[in-house]
Amino acid sequence: MDQPARTNLGFGFASTTMRESQRLRLATLVRLRWLAVAGQTATCFLVAFGLGYPLPLGWCLVLIVASAALTMLLWASNSASWRLSLRETTAVLAFDIVQLSGLLYLTGGLENPFVILLIVPAVIASATQPTSTTVALGALAVASTTFLAFFHLPLPWPNGTGLALPGFYLAGLWFAVAVSVAFASIVIHWQASEARALSDALAATELVLQREQHLSALDGLAAAAAHELGTPLSTIALIAKDMGASVPADDPRREDVELLITQSRRCREILKRLASLAADSEEHMARLQLLSLVEDVVAPHRNFGITIHVAGGERDGPEPVTRRNAGVLYGLGNLVENAVDFAESEVLVTVEWSRDEVRITITDDGPGFSPEALTRIGDPYMADRERPQRNAGGGLGLGLFIAKILIERSGAAIAFTNRRDKGRTGAIVKVVWPRETFAISAKEDFSEQSLLVERT
Fold first, then answer.
1. pTM over 0.85
2. What is the third-level CATH fold of 212-286?
């Protein structure tokens, strides 16, 4: 299976490169900043005039105006759809931490209950920025909290008496803010990374399906082209025949007329074969026996030094016939490819059917799935299996994820286990369809055959 370069989902991974979708939209950031400016202004005026507490209002308004000025500068310098670069986003969020720290310094420092807002810029970074930026902003938030624990003006309080909080309690507040920054950033970073991975995998799945559908449509286009070209070519052949009848045998143009008749006849034969091939392909594409389906899946993987056996188990009733499904073919192909990649010498594909079910089991003699991999099987980015000679445990599991999605879309259940035979290892992948979901009924088969006969 394809094995792109490793991308860990843990908090400590990630390259510093950013995709366009990760960059923070200016309109989103501006709305958040105006909300912060409005909240800070309302809180200061409420404390100063509503509650009548002593407050250095002038210096607070200077810091709030500075934040508003930066917001207006950002809004005026770019369009609303602009996405900020990594450096721009880091600078703006760092400014927000420093500006809020300044307000907290003027209003009680760590004693101010709004100190918890210092985690907001770090949380925003964790959802949209690389790990390095998130760590840097989180560290800045914790450093600011530490500074505010020792250096600050008195907390606004009635009659200017101030509030003396025990040092042990303040230490607990500092610890709570630090833990909140770390925990919220880690959790949101994990969730955002997994959401992006899932989005990428689903996009890859859709691209695979589109490619298979386009390939399946080529035969139909060939038939349409043959039909459209048939009429003008018949007209050309008729005119060429009339010209041949009117041109004498010793006329120098006779050779050209005969060449035109011969080539038009050859074109008609080519179009006839093309239409016949498209009709045969249409019938072949519409219906596929189970064993033929398995052979189509297995054939591309036979010449890679691994022996692939197709064996039969329980076979009750006639062989199922199904509609050709590009998603099923691609999904099973990925499973077989994965088994070949990890097998030591052979892969066994067992095909079974009964009155109720259709089963395809793929077994290899490789190392099998690790216990950790079995719990996360089908995640879009994970190591498929652990194998000592493979660097870092193999690929990322995108192909396995796509296979699982495509097969489950067809109505099948898929299970991943390991061999339990003594002295033997290997992975087992079992795909099971309800027969009524997989197979074309006799009535449907008769209707489709009748339609093909009418077309021909």
1. no
2. Helix Hairpins (1.10.287)
